[in-house]
Amino acid sequence: MSNRCESCMVRDRALCAALAPAELAALSVMATRRTVAAGEALFRAGDEPLLCATLQSGVMKLSATTAGGEEAIVGLLFPGDFIGRPFTTGAAGQDVVALTEVQLCSFPRARFEAALAEHPRLEALLLGRTLAELDRTREWLLRMGRASAGARVAGFLEDMVRRLGVLGCTAGTTVELPLSRGEMAALLGLTIETVSRQMTRLQGLGAIALRGGRQLMITAPALLAAEAGR
Amino acid sequence: MSNRCESCMVRDRALCAALAPAELAALSVMATRRTVAAGEALFRAGDEPLLCATLQSGVMKLSATTAGGEEAIVGLLFPGDFIGRPFTTGAAGQDVVALTEVQLCSFPRARFEAALAEHPRLEALLLGRTLAELDRTREWLLRMGRASAGARVAGFLEDMVRRLGVLGCTAGTTVELPLSRGEMAALLGLTIETVSRQMTRLQGLGAIALRGGRQLMITAPALLAAEAGR
DNA sequence: CGCTTAATTGATGTTAATCAAGAGGCGTGG
DNA sequence: CCACGCCTCTTGATTAACATCAATTAAGCG
Questions:
Q1: 3-state DSSP assignment of residue B223
Q2: Shortest-distance nucleotide from A146 CA to C1'
Q3: What is the C-alpha to C-alpha distance for residues B149 and B137, in angstroms, rounded to an integer?
């Protein structure tokens, strides 16, 4: 089993990177690999999430349904990210849904909690990660609160390319957006039409180039950053 | 020292509630009580936060400065809340500033980390709390993303009364708002004028009663909840 | 190749920001 | 104790940004 971890796609980025080979071997025994198809949910809001996992490939969304019945996306998960709520009981507040086909390395929650108790370094790292995620969410909150539609879209594209692209957000980087316009709107608190208009505007400025709805190339990173308001 | 903890105002709510009396005594030895005046900062964005603390009384804000130079408030801290970033190095993203006079029970960060390592229950609880805080921040994000100005203000008042009022958000509950209109605007992503107008509107509806700028009484909790969009 | 769904584009309406005064508290000093 | 000035809050008029409504075009897929 251990060799599985050694060949893990997110070996360097994931939580378990903190573990020594022997510890990793012990953990890998209880890991289950699992694939979730695009559009399928891993958890639903209201369920108690009974497993913890590391996202190995693909992108997921955290989405909630508003009082009005529309979808709102409150976060995205990328390879290496941790999923689950150890030491927390009660229903999840959001759905966790695969945007693309996704591969997970998952553990029953109780077992994962036991592993955390046994490997303090793992627990400390998870705490650090969660605090960092909290910070990132707060930064996002800042953007959502006061940035213009143009800044939101530009900032989102930057973030997306930085996390999906190999080299970060540099000229020529091309990525396939894992979200539809509707999902982008749900994430950014805008309408589909506004997102679309801003995309065309950014293309008109020469900051990005679009091909089809989802192929995105960065043509002027500095311009995009300026549009994002930074 | 231990008797200090026994008489602690937030003994039941704070993180250390998880500890046995003996453990508490050990921890209390390295605790420093400290008062921060209204308007004073505990940390500044860019500093490395070298201490961890429990907020004992008063209210604090987490605030960042936008590219445009205005203040944005990304969170509030109430008695019993934990402050600090154990196992995380690097600069804080936000200022932590007292809105009212505040009392803290603080620990040098390294010592607090050692305590976490020594008391796994404490660490598990902090992780659970941080995950819960993340969830709350995401709910807030949801509100910031799409709620109308009226819903934001009503939702904020509800939250505030629930956390400051003894009985929660019930008819007749009166609280002193710890934020100015400007700070409310910075928190809600609105302008001072819009906040003020919404407050007057809620008063006109009979949901709340205001006296002076900051004295708030809830007159119709159900109406307020309806305005918050829930 | 035609159908279906997603994305773009245009015209109009609404909401909250902005600009601009005025009113109410509060502390200071006469 | 009252007058003055400062600051916060409130209120009004106008403008700008985004939502909404309504087609049209482009893409994905059998």
A1: helix
A2: C17
A3: 18
Show residues of chain A in contact with B121, CB under 8 Å: none
State the Cα–Cα distance between residues B215 and B211, nearest whole angstrom.
5
Which whole number is the average pLDDT over B65-79?
A: 93
The answer for B 14-43 residues in CB contact with A (under 8 A) is none
Residue B12, pLDDT above cutoff 80: yes
H helix runs in chain A, sequence order: 2-6, 21-29, 109-118, 120-146, 149-164, 181-188, 192-205, 221-227
Residue-wise pLDDT tens digits, B216-228 = 999 999 999 999 9
Expressed in angstroms, the distance from the first to the final Cα of chain B is: 46
Q: Of B51, B35, B46, B48, which Cα lies nearest the Cα of B98?
A: B35
Q: Tokens standing for B195?
A: 């906040």
A90 in contact with chain B, both atoms CB, cutoff 8 A:
no
- Band of the pLDDT at B202, cuts 50, 70, 90? very high
* Average pLDDT score over residue span A75-101: 95
Of the candidates A88, A138, A230, the beta carbon closest to that of B137 is on A138
- pTM, two decimals, is 0.92
Q: Which residues touch strand D (CB under 7 A)?
A: A 148-150, 189-191, 193-194, 211-214; B 180-182, 192-193, 195-197, 199-200, 210, 213-214
Q: How far is the CA of A153 from the C1' of D5 (A)?
A: 46
Residue B2 clears pLDDT 60, i.e. is over it: no
Give the contacts of A13 (CB within 8 A, at least 6 positions apart): A79, A80
Q: Note the pLDDT of residue B3.
A: 58
CB contact under 8 A, A94 and B124: no
Determine contact, residues B134/A85, Cβ cutoff 8 Å: no
Kindly indicate the confidence band of residue A3, based on its pLDDT and cuts at 50, 70 and 90: low
Contact criterion met (CB below 8 Å) for A57 and B99: no
The answer to whether the CB of B2 falls within 8 A of the CB of B24 is yes
Q: Please tell me the predicted confidence (pLDDT) of residue A2.
A: 45
The whole-angstrom separation of Cα A141 and Cα A152 is 11
Q: Is A117's Cβ below 8 Å from some Cβ in B?
A: yes
CA of B229 vs chain A CAs: smallest distance (Å) = 7
Please answer yes or no on whether B144 and A189 come within 8 Å at the CB atom.
Answer: yes
Rounded to 5 degrees, φ, ψ at B57 are: -150, 155
Q: Which nucleotides of C are covered by protein (CB under 7 A)?
A: 6-11, 15-20, 25-26
- Collapsing DSSP to helix, strand or coil, B13 comes out as coil
